[in-house]
Design brief:
disordered N terminus, about 25% helix, about 170 residues, alpha+beta, about 20% strand
């Protein structure tokens, strides 16, 4: 990643991701979605996240760039449930370089993916984030999301040896 500040917001361009953008998107994701920052991520950030969404929903794989530098990305998909007239949009990943967050890049990406989903007939858009990720919750509330609900995530480390509890006989 270049250490120089990106060009101003007036030069910000949101466009569909291309194969040539994969490396930059991957590295921004590595910078933003770390295990240390998000210990309860139920999805793991890896190269397959990019390729999977790019292969299935390329029109919902967006990058933000200025001055030829990728500043952030959004990866989304749509879901149509069986026996439901509703089509849902799911914004799965939204990442912006950590050195320029709160500069309007995320809002620009969100505005464009929302527009594209609406054009595809999406009636409800869904995101998820950790309840304790206050910056993300505030960001999405500013974008119009409401009905914040906490989810319970539980984990079981299968690599740890478990002790069997003795069976007590009456």
């Amino acid at each position: 990643m270049p250490e120089t500040a990106p060009a101003g917001k007036e030069n910000l361009r949101i466009r569909e991701m291309t194969i040539d953008d994969f490396s930059a998107v991957f590295h921004i994701g590595e910078e933003v979605f770390t295990a240390e920052s998000f210990q309860s991520l139920y999805r793991t950030w890896d190269e397959y996240e990019i390729t999977t969404f790019f292969n299935s929903d390329s029109e919902l794989c967006l990058v933000a760039e200025a001055g030829g530098t990728i500043l952030g990305f959004a990866l989304g998909t749509t879901v149509t449930k069986h026996n439901s007239p509703w089509k849902y949009g799911y914004l799965v990943w939204l990442g912006v370089r950590t050195d320029i967050q709160q500069g309007g890049v995320g809002s620009g990406l969100f505005k464009e993916i929302r527009h594209r989903m609406k054009e595809q007939g999406v009636r409800m858009m869904i995101i998820d984030t950790s309840a304790d990720n206050r910056p993300a919750v505030r960001f999405f509330e500013k974008q119009g999301f409401g009905d914040v609900q906490e989810h319970v995530y539980m984990s079981l480390n299968l690599s740890r040896k478990t002790r069997k509890k003795p069976v007590r006989k009456p």
